[in-house]
Amino acid sequence: MLAYLKRLLRTGAAYQAAEIVAKGLAVLTLPLYTRHVSPGGYGAYQSLFTAVILASIFARVGVGEAFIRFYFTDTDAARRDRIARTATAAVAWTTTALAAVTVAFASPLSGVLLGLSAHHRDPLLIDCAALGLWAFTNLEVAYAQLRVDERVRTYVAASGSNVALTIALTIALVVFAGQGARGLLLGNFGASAVVVLGLWWTLRRRFSLRVRREDLAAMLRFGLPTVPADASVYALQVADRFYLYRSDGHAAAGDYSIALQLATVVFVFVRGFQYAWPPLAYSIDRDDDAARLYSLVGTYFVLGTGVVVAGVALLGRWMVRLLAAHEYFGAHSALPWLALGWALYGLYQVMIVITGRARATGLNLPAALAGLAVNVALLIVLVPRSGVGLGIAGAGIALCGAYVVMLVILHLLSRRVFAVRFQWGRLATLTAVLAGVSVSGELLLPTHGAEGLLLRVLWLAWIPAVLTALRFFSASERAQARGLLADARVRVAAFRAQGGDVEEFAEDPLKDI
Question: Are residues 292 and 196 in the same domain?
């Protein structure tokens, strides 16, 4: 199990590093963008950005998900390349067709997505979103080809190039050209389009525009059942933003969008895990080994993300004050809930790998539809003044409630096809400790000033203290952790004393552990 965990940690850390750079710079540039884009414009940008990602799920027709699963069922290199070429070609054709249709109907789509009044219509924003649909979807498939071979250095280089181009284009378009929401969309998706073309050249052995029917048919049989489920899951994140945008006003959607941006402190961990987890989970041959690993990973994932969520819950006000203009301060009320929502989404990734391993992807849909229904119902009850009146905080709570329902249903359904004995006692202990520290700190400690910040940072120390007192970590886990730390110190010391390959060390710091 330790070897698998080290592999997951190594690849996940590389993907997280790329995501941390991307999202960290996005957060750090918030003060710049929020001073040149109105809350309404920022809300429109985020609404279209999420609409692009939702549409990309349909554009992939499940081929991207099937590619990763099929890649590990065949050890022949030539057949693997053939599967990769078919996946690339299929997605390239579907995205090109959908982007063309989007541009053709830009004006009516603008009215549907941004508002029915002429004041809110902007067909050029829809044109930017069409480019985003093509670029984002093809980039995801290209990244998947890097992940199955764990080519983390190439992935980091491509991701870093994407970040650099995005920042340069966005600043030029938003700050200097004054393009507002259009500049935000073009900056993001124009850079992605350039990186897609670069990766197609780099991966040209696996790039083709020819679709092999037999390979595509097999991937569609596996992947198509995942499309409605994935769309329903992502619709959770679209529904709250569109509901706020159309019911509570553009400013509320803008505040919520800023909260989502700041919640990426959790998302970067989830994204790294999401990229590294399926290739590892599918590559394990023995089902009993896989079941044990899935259980252990679930516990450690809750521990890692839970600590970060607790930090966001206690320090969220200071994050908003530091990184956003003062008119966006209301975003802090939704921030803890959105951070928790991302953590729950990561647990959902653990569950769907279980159904994917059992090739029972159809089980994902009932759980996803139930979650979407719960999300819509809770939005109606919790958000408006005619209901509970929690505003954007209510939208965050609705998202968390939906994910909890999805996890429960998916676990009940999946255990019939692939049983995983999760460590329920440890998970209950973790949940109680993390929630207790977060809630008590929020109720007892100051909500502003340097004193409040310092006290809340110190309050987080209760988490390891209480877990240690409750003997949460087993003796073998403590011994393994001490061994890993000792070996890491030895390697770092040797590296400093003798010199070495900085890139190699950064890519694989656990190589010799």
Answer: no
- Rounded to an integer, what distance in angstroms lies between the CA atom of residue 106 and that of residue 121? 10
Which of 177, 170, 233 shows the shortest CA–CA distance to 29?
A: 170
Domain assignment of residue 8, yes or no: no
Same domain, 368 and 306: yes
Instruction: Tell me whether residue 11 is in a domain.
Output: no
243 within some domain = no
Q: At what angle do helices 449-459 and 287-323 cross, to 10 degrees?
A: 170
The amino acid at residue 214 is E
Cα dihedral 41, 17, 307, 47 in deg (nearest 10): 20
Core vs surface per residue 353-376: b (16+ CB within 10 A) or e: bbbbbeebbebbbbbbbbbbebbb
Question: Which residue range is the domain that position 371 belongs to?
Answer: 251-473
CA atoms of 118 and 312, how far apart (whole Å) = 39
**Widest Cα–Cα separation across the chain:** 68
| 36-53 pLDDT tens trace | 887 778 778 877 888 898
Task: Say if residues 270 and 345 touch (Cβ distance below 8 Å).
Answer: yes
Question: In this model, does residue 120 exceed pLDDT 90?
Answer: no
Please identify which residue in the block is written with the tokens 């539809």. Answer: 369
How many domains is the chain partitioned into structurally? 3
338 shares its domain with 442? yes
DSSP 208-232: -SPPPHHHHHHHHHHHTTHHHHHHH
Q: Are 220 and 63 in contact (CB under 8 A)?
A: yes
368: pLDDT strictly greater than 80: yes
Task: In the chain, count H helices and then E strands.
Answer: 22, 0
Report yes or no: 126 and 104 within 8 Å, Cβ to Cβ: no
Reading the block at residue 399, the tokens are: 């998202």
Q: Which of 224, 242, 276 is the last residue of a domain?
A: 224
Q: By mean pLDDT, which of 136-150, 324-338, 453-467 is the weakest?
A: 324-338
How far lies 228's CA from each of 97, 126, 369, 404, in Å?
20, 23, 9, 19
Place of tokens 């619709």: 235
Contact status, residue 336 vs residue 313, Cβ threshold 8 Å:
yes
- With a cut of 80, say whether residue 321 has pLDDT above it: yes
Residue 65 and residue 226 in contact, taking contact as beta carbons nearer than 8 Å? yes
**Which has the minimum average pLDDT: 175-189, 373-387, 474-488?**
474-488
Residue 16 has pLDDT above 80, yes or no: no
At residue 118, does pLDDT exceed 60?
no
Paired tokens of 156: 């980091």
Interatomic CA distance for residues 310 and 316, integer angstroms: 10
Give φ, ψ of 129 to 5 degrees: -65, -35
User: 109 is written with which tokens?
Assistant: 């789509």
User: Is the separation of the CB atoms in 375 and 399 below 8 Å?
Assistant: yes
Beta carbons within 10 angstroms of residue 72's beta carbon: 18
- DSSP character string of 282-337: HH---HHHHHHHHHHHHHHHHHHHHHHHHHHHHHHHHHHHHHS-GGGGGGGGTHHH
